[in-house]
From TrEMBL:
Listed GO CC annotations: membrane
Phylogenetic lineage: Eukaryota, Viridiplantae, Streptophyta, Embryophyta, Tracheophyta
Pfam families reported in the protein's UniProt record: Sugar_tr
Sequence ranges assigned to domain Major facilitator superfamily (MFS) profile in this UniProt record: 54-493
Family under the similarity heading: Belongs to the major facilitator superfamily. Sugar transporter (TC 2.A.1.1) family.
Record localization: Membrane
Membrane topology summary: Multi-pass membrane protein
Organism of origin: Paspalum notatum var. saurae
Protein name: Major facilitator superfamily (MFS) profile domain-containing protein
Record bears the keyword Protein transport: no
Amino acid sequence: MADAGTPANGGRNKYAVLDRSEEPEQLDAGAGGRRRLPAPESERRRRERFVYACAVFASLNAILLGYDVGVMSGAIIYMQKDLHITEFQQEILVGCLSVVSLLGSLSGGRTSDAIGRKWTMGLGAIVFQFGAAIMTFAPSFTVLMIGRLLAGVGIGFGAMVSGVYIAEISPAGARGTLTSLPEICINLGILLGYVSNYAFSGLSEHINWRIMLGVGILPSVFIGFALFVIPESPRWLMMEKRVSEARAVLLQISESEAEAEERLAEIEEAAGLMKSMKSEEKEVWKELLNPSPAVRRMLYAGCGIQLFQQITGIDATVYYSPTIFKDAGIKSDQELLAATVAVGFTKTVFILVAIFLIDKVGRKPLLYVSTIGMTICLFLLGVALTLQKHAVGLMSPRIGIDLAIFAVCGNVAFFSIGMGPICWVLSSEVFPLRLRAQGSALGQVGGRVSSGLVSMSFLSMARAISVAGMFFVFAAISTISVVFVYVCVPETKGKTLEQIEMMFESGDEWRGGEIELEDTQHLIPSNKKSEPLG
């Protein structure tokens, strides 16, 4: 393959504005001769804004997933009336997206290694557009399912590769914030889906759910435009031995040329371009399926967090929030949809809190707050729904409704503070370059399968053990997730991707569930500093 640093169009590099040979050079003549000065503050801020813009554009894929989750919770009410679908068909329609999206996640890893990260995101958006269009005009349940399957594959592509892309362009100090952006976009998409449900609920039952689904095509159009703005991942370019292009992109996204060269050297070593690495002789999937102790630790952390994110019932809470609120005592469809808007608003607001704290506090403290808070709220929701059924006359029905809404909002708030965004962060951080795409895809598989199983069985299980019983089960699983965080999740705050790989290789910092004391102090309001231990 020809190196991209030797362009055909008149010798000008395609990233010419970033090419070192064409950058205006600031030199200082000191005792040691000429040396390059750091980039001016305005240039540094411009590059920082560009990195954030790239991360935002890459995160648009997540809006598709969020919107689909949110809009389906309300649209399904009117699909039942228009297409006369059964409860079983409802479960399949809602839950199949999660399972089918794993096909996109699995193929997305290999595709992103073959054609690049950003073009894989574009491919996912195109597939989703076709699926959403088919669903919008579906005359029957069968056609609706065909569109749903296509949309799921497209979402799987985008959800897998966007986190990888953002992690690979982000500097270590901002990577937690930037790789959390997909979770922000999921929450924003969910909120937009809920608002769409409420806004169009007054239309005809034959038209309203079709408009709700059709609006979801719009974000994928913006993704198409974004592909002409964002650069390719420098780490992928290095894997393809396109060193000149990788350097040019790093100059564009780093604060200074010195940082760009340092990151280039780290990536070059990790990619095995400077020296041969034994691990390159293995097939990637063979290494993942027959892992070394270090890779096994990575799989526990990266895939385990994806699993617990879903089996604690967040998708069931979001997809079936109208069912939950109906069980709590709300009667009219519009009141149900209005209550779901409150859930979406809460989820979106608290994800912003997490983005502010994730690179200040660290991953593990937020995960502890998240998992413990979710456990309490899930248990409280089970209690609220039980009292509504078995304590009739002992308390006002309004109190039960308010308690249920409070518990659901509390659950999604605690989820958004930690388990939601940090899942994306960790799954894109913990794997080394040679395993990152497939490792992230494998984590997505576990998460999507778990989400699908929960979504496709929720109504049936709720009929067997009650809706309240389901949330007692989720509370028990959430308790186990607290232990998982302590045992299996390392702190990765402030470390480069290459340093994280070395940490897993040594295993020293991975064991014992360490937390830096100063990190936890960010979460504890106090007028005086803690005394040092010992």
